[in-house]
Write a structure and sequence with these properties.
Blueprint (H helix, E strand, L loop, with lengths): L18 H17 L3 E2 L5 E3 H8 L4 H6 L2 E4 L2 E5 L4 H11 L1 H4 L3 E9 L11 E9 L5 H18 L4 E7 L6 H13 L7 H9 L2 H4 L4 H8 L10 H16 L5 E2 L10 E10 L7 E12 L2 E11 H9 L14 E6 L2 H16 L3 E4 L5 H10 L4 E5 L1 H6 L1 E6 L5 E5 L4 H8 L8
Helix pairs in contact: 1-6, 6-11
The protein binds adenosine monophosphate.
Length: 425
Amino acid sequence: MASLLQPVQGMSDIAAPEVAHWQRMEAVARDVMERHGFTELRTPLMEYEDLFTRSIGDTTDVVQKEMYSFERSHHRLCLRPEGTAGVMRHAAGLGPIEAAGARWYYIGPMFRCERPQAGRKRQFHQCGVECMEEPSPLVDAEILALQVDLLRAWGVTDCEVHLNTRGAGTEHAAVAAGLRAALAAREGDLCEDCRRRIHENVLRVLDCKNEACRAIVSSLPPVTAFMGPESVAYLEAVEAHLRAMSIPYRRDPLLVRGLDYYEHTIWEIAGRRAGSQSALAGGGRYRITLANRAWPGVGFAIGMERVLQLLLESPDASALLPPRRPLLWLVGLGNAAQSANLVLLRTLRAAGLVCRMAPSGSMKSQMRAANKAGAAWTLLRGDDELASGTILLKNMTTGDQRPVPADDALPTLLLSETAPAPARP
Ligand code: AMP
């Protein structure tokens, strides 16, 4: 039986000090997104199961194997495995006129019941956008550039963009037929899954991690060979915009992305590190049918755990965090001093200082609590200090201490005395 002291397998608590990186990434993301004209959309973590089986495609791994689905009150529900379908449900609820041109971003947990391993969780976090402007190569390139800029703002400077196209929706059948014909002679050499995938959803063969399958797939013609000139021109227009913005990318003729709703531009971004979990993010143009209407958009999702893992591998990771105000600990000897400290605590906090106190205990135990919490400064007073209107300010690193006046000027004095070191340029 699983331990009640552990989170569910594949899921994690996020606590200090790591949580500071999450807070920074979220704050940076909000800033970057808002500057690009996106507003936040918070959709529920739970949706009707149908929303995903219809939009993602019922032959995809996510739908076939990975969804946390269950029945409650005669409804099939599931925890969201990705963010796009919920955002499109919201758009469809607003209607086409209201939703046209919308730009939304989201940050939050997604759930997939995959085999847990390094960089692969069952609850993980994605930061993503969906843009519902008129489909055009220019918007696709702008969204891809935003994703690269966000990764750079987080501190990921070394990543690779892999770009390809799924072609227009009307070409999907021709692409599938072309790939099936190209694979026919080698069908017997494919893994068991791929022998099934050829007939069920041949694009999945291109995604297979099996060595033998990869070797066969690498000799296939590019998917663009089965598309018309308009789709190829669309991709080339995206590439021209990327070059104009100096966004480095690589055309990857075998890239297909895992979900069925894509058409035209698709991409993945990989961090430069060894191992199979180097995929940081994906994105692309899609068309999702809801309420008998097609909802076109372009968007991306970044795996936040993967980005953080990459950042934390750098020895300079802590330099990414903004400087924090040091912790100040109030020590009071006797009830009168403790009560006066409680009042002072509120004044100091209102002035912007970070401070705490222990509710009771000897001086020794209060100092021990201050040390354990990592206090950089203590403010100590007993009856004598109360009588003289002073308080003892102690620097916990150097051990230096001196009495300072406990008057209205105290917050200002402490703000300058305890200011954190300026951020490194
Ligand atoms: P996808 O929606 O599958 O295109 O995923 C987009 C990004 O989310 C990937 O590039 C990964 O960075 C991240 N991701 C997907 N699945 C997981 C997972 N199980 N655990 C951690 N990150 C994931």
